[in-house]
Amino acid sequence: MQLKGSLKEFRALTQAQLDAWVAQARVMVQAGRIPDYIPRLAEVDRNWLAVQIEFSDGQTYAVGDVEQPFALMSVIKPFVLLFLLEQLGHETVFSQVGMQPSDQPFHSVAQLVADQGFPRNPMINSGAIALADCLPGHDGPSRCEALRQWLNQLSGAQLVLDREMLASVRSVGNETNRAIATLLAESSGLSSVETALDTYNHICCLAGTVVDLAHLGMLMTSPHARISRSHQQTVNALMLTCGLYEASGEFAVQLGLPTKSGVSGALLAIAPSFGAIACYSPALDKTGNSIAGLFLLERLTRSLELSIFG
Ligand code: GLU
User: Fold this and answer.
1) What local confidence, expressed as pLDDT, does residue 188 receive?
2) Is the pTM here over 0.85, yes or no?
């Protein structure tokens, strides 16, 4: 049995050590930014902080507000990709979206124009809107429900649609995502700008707790009876290269783990073969990643030597 990164070492993580890191993180979040471009996102308490670690042998660690629900926002993107890879296969999915990282912001219209309307990857808004339009169903609610049910059935999570968040997202219009969808419709033929956008808005408002998020992460950590290994590998690779906005490259080095963040302060890291780490803390750094989430992930990956690069 290998020693480095084995489950034995995970057990060396003490609750006291985790509690101490969380206490440090609680100080750091005071300086962070709470996004307000969606009004409901600004209604959070910046002191909410939760971590759930789930290992493949069933062992778990939990700290903080683990019962506090939050919208997944962009953390849903890898799961849309996983679902569609399973439903449609690699070739069809990657005829709609690329595999290239981007150093532009997640909602960059200029990037999509420069790429002649072909979305760079599934972790940015253009790619996620294009893929949202491939979900089975005739409208936003039915497509979102198909994804929600599949994820809940396979992972044991209890995701729900946060209708108040959805109303808040709709209240601001979001012209940037509309511009992206319009460009996509011109270049690759979205079925309808309105339906694609409404689907995207719905799936971003799927909500759960860190326990649910860790359950979702477990879909990509170990062989799974109903998910192809190569699809897990594809999603993990794209999370590693594209999952943390413009900071993805930097954190591929610093963490060495497939990771995805969302504007709500959600953060999920996959430690292939070993487990999933889910964090929630709404204060963001300048790139839009959860300050506490990244801090805790760095501490955990360094101390437990979780990097996939050995
Ligand atoms: N629904 C959000 C948006 O498109 C998701 C952004 C994010 O989490 O990065 O603005």
Assistant:
1) 76
2) yes
